[in-house]
Amino acid sequence: MGNPVFLKAKWLNLVMLNYEVDPNLLKRYLPPGTELDLWQGKALASMVGFMFYDTSVLGIKWPWHINFEEVNLRFYVKYFDGKAWKRGAVFISEIVPKPIITILANTLYKEPYRTLPMRHSVTPIANDHSEFLYEWKLKGQWNKLGVTVNNNLVPIQPDSAEEFIFEHYWGYNALSKLKTMEYQVEHITWQVGAVKDYVFKADIAELYGQEFVPYLQATPYSAFFADGSAINVRMGQKILIAPKLP
Length: 246
Prior knowledge:
With 246 residues, the chain is mainly beta. It has helices spanning 23-27, 99-108, 161-166, 204-208, 213-216; strands spanning 5-20, 34-36, 44-57, 68-80, 85-96, 113-115, 118-125, 129-138, 141-150, 154-155, 170-174, 179-186, 191-193, 195-201, 222-234, 237-240. The strands form two sheets. It has a seven-stranded mixed barrel with strand order 1-3-4-5-11-12-15. The protein has a four-stranded antiparallel sheet with strand order 7-8-9-14, with no helix packed on it. Helix 2 (99-108) links the parallel strand 5 and strand 6.
């Protein structure tokens, strides 16, 4: 049996722009005990936009905090628990429009959430395509992340780039130099649609730091879309990492 469920929701209409990043930049954010999880030798960071629907926290549906957007920047790690490797994600920044989500996530999981005004849209496009767009307001300007995607969805193929990006079922955060928070995410395997075009316009330096500007301003290594599903996020647990001997 896993830990008790902390959050239940539906994660839908997931937009993923994936960028190749210098591994040494990401290593600064590695929680103790984790290693970078590489795709064909490349360290990838993903700009992610998606919708929360039907959200409950600790079994409670908080008023005005049930349906909302999220945009985050994450990268991929793995952790060996003594028996098997677990593949997970580490978040550099997460944006939501709801302050209670920010307070709970920052307090209980040490996640780097911030609250900003957000909006989203889904627009039908000719030739059986749709545009999914996520926007957030920073310093009076609307930033945006979105894709135009084929409406015909297909299963994720084993050993594919899509499987690498979407099939990470653990989250990790650094609590200290020797302590890491680990939590489990549960969902079915999603379906994906072919991305025809993308948009990403944001104040990268303000959001993520100047060091990310050359990487996130480049052409994405890949762009994906998934339909999503119901999810569970289980209560986290602390991992104590033994100090390295001199």
